[in-house]
What we know:
Largest sheet: 8 strands, mixed
Strand content: 35-45%
Low-confidence stretches: none
Number of helices: 5
Amino acid sequence: MIIFGLMTIKKITIQDIESLKEISKLTFIETYSSKNSYENMTKYLENEFSTEKITNDLTNPNIEFYFAILNKIIVGYLKVNFKEAQTEIKDENALEIERIYVLKEFHRKRIGQALYEKTIELAIKKEMEYIWLGVWEQNHKAIRFYEKNNFIAFDKHVFMLGNDKQTDIMMKLDIKKA
């Protein structure tokens, strides 16, 4: 566990599944519902945050989740993937940030930055060469966040939200530049 002032970063276990499902759905809705249809959001939430899917992720040794807890309230979370659990690249020397999400009311309080710094710590500990991620091209706030942290765009890929084909910008950070 890492402590940043009053905030704690805690590794999530299977016992935390209901809390993880709740924060996952809430932050996803806050982030994307204004620019996507109700039908596509509903379909994605049902599939991606189902008990079965999250149980599989929590029991996969190459996937790790962490809560950001502020004053005993879960305010955000991190999901990272290693090895074959990565969604696209699947490089043994890479760590994928699949999600850094923070509740809207806690934006600009350095919680996302603390979760990002946890990612750097994990990558260094596991001797990774780089970190990569995909970020929706319309999520300008997240793109600026990653650029501020020295990530560089290197490609694009398709992300399906329900039946909507969206474009993610793929970004990469050399650990030596972290």
